Amino acid sequence: MYPSKFSAELSDFSFDVSDLNVKNHDSRVMYQMCLRRDTGLIYSMKRTKTTLGSPPREKLILEALTERRVPFVSHLRWIIQDGDQMCLVTVSLLNFSP
Fold this sequence. Notes:
With 98 residues, this protein is mainly β. The protein is built from one helix and six strands; from the N terminus they run ββββαββ.
């Protein structure tokens, strides 16, 4: 997985960064931009309600792409489990300037 010095919890993030809080047609999924309070870096977060059983395919795919450092793909930074929600936190392109 993408190297990280720190673990993360939902309380580490501020969610009032952007008006970009999008709910998918499926009410179990929500996309948000968030700010990591200790670093000031912006990340994108996908919140998904989880069900018992195997992990979602998207999680497995993102982990594999991140390990291989595939270019032009958002790299997975943290996976946060919060009750019945799984939050996939990826690096936002807003942190990079040309």
